[in-house]
Amino acid sequence: MEEYTIEATDLTKYFGDFLAVDHVSFKVKRGEVYGWLGPNGAGKTTTIRMLLGLLKITEGQARVLGYDPGTQAKDMQAHVGYMSQLFTLYQDLTAAENIRFYGQVYGLNRRTLHRRQAEIIEMAGLEGRQHVLTSNLSGGWKQRLALGCAIIHRPQVVFLDEPTAGVDPISRRRFWKLIYDMAQEGVTILVTTHYMDEAELCQRVGFISEGRLIALDTPDQLKQTQMRGQVLEIDCDQPALAIPALQAMGAFEEVALYGALIHAVAPDIETLKPQIAKVLQQAGISVRTMDVIAPSLEDVFISSVRRPANERVQA
Fold first, then answer.
1. What sign does the CA torsion over 12, 13, 18, 21 have?
2. Distance CA 179, CA 186 (A)
3. CATH number of 63's domain
4. Whole-number Å distance between alpha carbons of 56 and 71
5. SS3 173
6. CA angle at 227 for the pair 242 and 301, rounded to the nearest 5°
7. Which of 201, 223, 245 delimits the end of a domain?
């Protein structure tokens, strides 16, 4: 049995003269929950669509379960599942009818389809709602139903492209429990997200920006190795005024608002605390607390994005 179920080497995609994915290389182990973290337009969806054989690879190579997506996509489809950014459910069908439709598309026989329909309805928490039109289901139920339809054929690899976009936090947590339930059964999960808290739940995370893989490791290792500088968290009464005052100092890698708090990043931030306090006091801003903290994954991502463009990661 192969150790890696997904392998990409110098994966590249051009749309005309536009470079959408720039020589990306990585490997994903069997049963791993692997995340892509990046903003919209970073190249996450394009990468997935190349791995699925839905887009032609411009340069480089890819293998999914040993299949070449460029020449063996049809054979590969029986072993992979895909949940796209947009719900691909039929809104004028009931939940049960959607499940039956996708089961028939994947060629399940009647007995297997009946069993899998019951399992998916239970997994999605749709007991008593299986005969409700999909258009009348909440976002969380639609999301879990879409996942069920994507895995009805029990794929070995599942691609989830920003599956929780626009879904409430409770539904997102429940969805991630389903992801780990699948991983424990040996299913490989590649999930894209722009939510930092979701990236923290992945076993490994790849940061992608402007089509480039700029960092790749476990969330904890990324925090230890990819952060350039220390993070000072400032709690003050007028953060909107404090940020431009701090930026005017010209001493920081980054100054940004995190909720109601400010994060200021510099190589030796402890030595800057007296100067920071003075600048804020002169601006009429009252500081409640000012502490050096461990970086969040968002701090690390911003730091990594600022790395020079020629520093790529090989996995």
1. negative
2. 11
3. 3.40.50.300
4. 10
5. helix
6. 75
7. 223
pLDDT digits (tens, 9 = 90+) for 213-266: 999 999 999 998 888 889 999 999 999 999 999 999 999 988 989 889 999 999
Do residues 214 and 273 share a domain? no
pLDDT, tens digit (0-9, with 9 covering 90-100), for 111-153: 999 999 999 999 888 899 999 999 998 888 888 899 999 999 9
Q: Say yes or no: 29 and 114 in one domain.
A: yes
Name the residue with tokens 């039956």: 100
**Do 159 and 255 have their domain in common?**
no
Closest listed residue to residue 157, CA positions, set 183, 125, 119, 133: 183
Same domain, 215 and 242: no
- Residue 299 within any structural domain of the chain: no
Strand partners, 290: 234
Domain limits for position 176:
4-223
User: Are residues 114 and 261 located together in one domain of the fold?
Assistant: no
Give the DSSP letter string of 24-68: EEEEEETT-EEEEE--TTSSHHHHHHHHTTSS--SEEEEEETTB-
The enclosing H or E element of 10 equals: strand 4-15
CA triple 249-250-251, angle to 5 deg: 90
Q: How many residues does the chain have?
A: 315
Q: Which of 8, 16, 23 is nearest to 210 (CA)?
A: 23
pTM of the predicted protein model: 0.87
